[in-house]
Design a protein that fits this description.
single chain; 189 residues; alpha+beta; three-stranded antiparallel β-sheet; 7 helices; 47% helix
């Protein structure tokens, strides 16, 4: 449908500026319109071909996923790792395999177990040992000055060896026998 209006447009095919007679005109000529149509048909065919190619490539992997027992090569395809990595996992005991003649077969459930999250075991923490009131003790300052040890090293030592301690206000007392045994083991007890 033509009208008396004239609109300046840019052709979507060739990029030239032209005068359009309608607001819906996209191309400067019939030739550009035909070229754009052919390009669109070609793009649709290429996209369909690409989808078919992807389906053909994915088909072997889908077939492998349905198998109960896998060869080394099939396990490599599923996991996306090399044959050598599969063999290292077998050597370390991370995967278990069986032999069928000369072939090594891996059960599909073994591969699924690789990705199962381990159930964390709750730690049974023993309560910290408390310093008995009648037990001989050192203050932390006495231990630092006697053995020439830094604050951090002393705190780490107490925590790691679970040395009995007691805090009264700002002063921390630690077991004299436990500290002497750890820092100076040749002393007679």
């Amino acid at each position: 449908m033509s009208s008396n209006i004239e609109v300046q447009r840019v052709c979507q095919q060739c990029g030239k500026v032209f005068t359009a007679r309608t607001t819906r005109t996209k191309y400067c000529s019939h030739a550009c319109n035909s070229k754009a149509y052919k390009a669109g048909v070609r793009a649709t065919k290429v996209e369909g071909s690409d989808q078919q190619t992807k389906a053909v490539i994915a088909k072997p992997i889908e077939d492998i996923k349905s198998k109960a027992f896998l060869s080394i090569n099939e396990a490599c395809l599923i996991l996306g790792i090399s044959r050598r990595t599969i063999y290292r996992m077998l050597e370390r005991g991370e995967l278990h395999a069986g032999k069928a003649g000369a072939r090594t077969l891996i059960q599909r459930s073994e591969i699924d177990k690789l990705f199962a999250l381990p159930v964390p075991k709750p730690k049974a923490e023993e309560p910290p040992k408390e310093l008995l009131p009648d037990e001989p003790f050192y203050t932390l300052a006495e231990v630092r000055s006697k053995y020439g040890i830094s604050d951090k090293a002393l705190y780490d030592l107490i925590k790691h060896n679970k040395v009995p301690k007691r805090q009264e206000w700002k002063t921390v007392y630690v077991s004299k026998s436990a500290i002497d045994e750890i820092l100076n083991p040749e002393l007679p007890q």
